[in-house]
Amino acid sequence: MAYTNDDEALQQWPIECRDDALQYLKMSHEMVKKLLEALMGNLGVELDDSNIDVFIGKKMVNMNFYPTCLNPELTVSVGRHSDIGTLTILLQDGIGGLYVKVPEEADMENKGEWVEIPPIPGAIVINVGDMLQIWSNGRYKSAEHRVRTTSTKSRVSIPIFVSPQATQKIAPFPQVVEKDGVARYSEFVFADYMNSFFGNAHDGKKSLEFAKAN
């Protein structure tokens, strides 16, 4: 359910869930602003009301249902990928099934392996998206993840995807490039990145190759 304004949401979103979904979206919006202020501030980039829409110009609420499968090892509910936007706010049920790949460069024993993110009552999962990785010139890493079904219970998850507008130009922040001495990604329009992402099969984080600097 893509959000443009309250009136459109009340008219077009399913009546069974629209009020709760709209409240969830609004509460998450303030949290996302605070998260971005902290993350960008750590990079020396100051956010205010004049530029926050660059990061959260578009918001979408999804409601995902994963039915039970007698042989879950033979299914892949969502292929491994990273989200293309800025941040993803994920509300899980108590079933589990979300796995994140630990980056190879991580200083951990299980680097390169898939680690389940267990649901915690009252907690939400925050995923860094590809755009935040690019804006930060690679300092923040988007989360490669996948979802597995179970043979006993159906699974429900409700993610909010926060993204730039399709017409927004994306490039690493000059403040970060100056510190790093190199821009690791080229400038592009977000719509072109989306077309590349949805025009190809999910294959981990290969979608980021679209933006790699030459």
UniProtKB/TrEMBL annotation:
It comes from the Eukaryota. Pfam families: 2OG-FeII_Oxy. GO terms for molecular function: metal ion binding; oxidoreductase activity. SUPFAM superfamilies: Clavaminate synthase-like (SSF51197). The keyword Oxidoreductase applies. Belongs to the iron/ascorbate-dependent oxidoreductase family. This is Scopoletin 8- Hydroxylase.
